[in-house]
Automatic annotation (TrEMBL):
Pfam families: 4HBT_2. CDD domains: 4HBT. It comes from Hymenobacter polaris. It comes from the Bacteria. The lineage of its organism: Bacteria, Pseudomonadati, Bacteroidota, Cytophagia, Cytophagales. This is Thioesterase. GO terms for molecular function: fatty acyl-CoA hydrolase activity.
Length: 137
């Protein structure tokens, strides 16, 4: 996802009592960026449903670097850090940037593809594995 990013505005609902963006909002923005990126590759929610395939996470880690506040414009950029041959398992790193370009946080997720019928891990369609491989850095 080296070339895919989404821009957002931090909303009131994403703030904690201290006026900072709450911890879980970082994960929400990273997840939304992943969904937009996958849709840009031709794998939107409807296509995943038709394939009976879904992404699952094993680990999600956030490193907080700078505070974010309500009304700030942020950019979330993601990239595939690694994946297994065939693309069954993967690691994606999201960097959340402040409007001035400073990194505010790094969200790293380890995940895999789940066959929703069998409830077992599976390899994705070759087209998706290849697209993710092209984005790997």
């Amino acid at each position: 996802m080296s070339h895919h990013s989404q821009t957002y505005t931090v909303r009131w609902a994403e703030l904690d009592p201290n006026g900072h963006m709450r911890h879980s909002a970082y994960a929400d923005f990273a997840a939304d960026q992943r969904v937009h990126w996958l849709a840009s590759l031709g794998f939107d929610v409807a296509r995943f449903a038709a394939l009976r395939l879904g992404p699952i996470l094993f680990r999600e880690e956030t490193k907080y670097l700078k505070e974010l506040h309500g009304g700030e414009t942020i950019r979330v950029e993601g990239r595939v850090v690694s994946q297994t041959p065939g693309g069954a398992r993967w690691t994606i790193e999201h960097t959340i940037y402040k409007a001035n370009g400073q990194p505010a946080a790094i969200v790293t997720v380890d995940g895999a593809w789940l066959d929703l019928g069998r409830r077992k891990l599976t390899a994705p369609p070759a087209e998706l594995a290849a697209a993710m491989q092209e984005e790997e850095m």
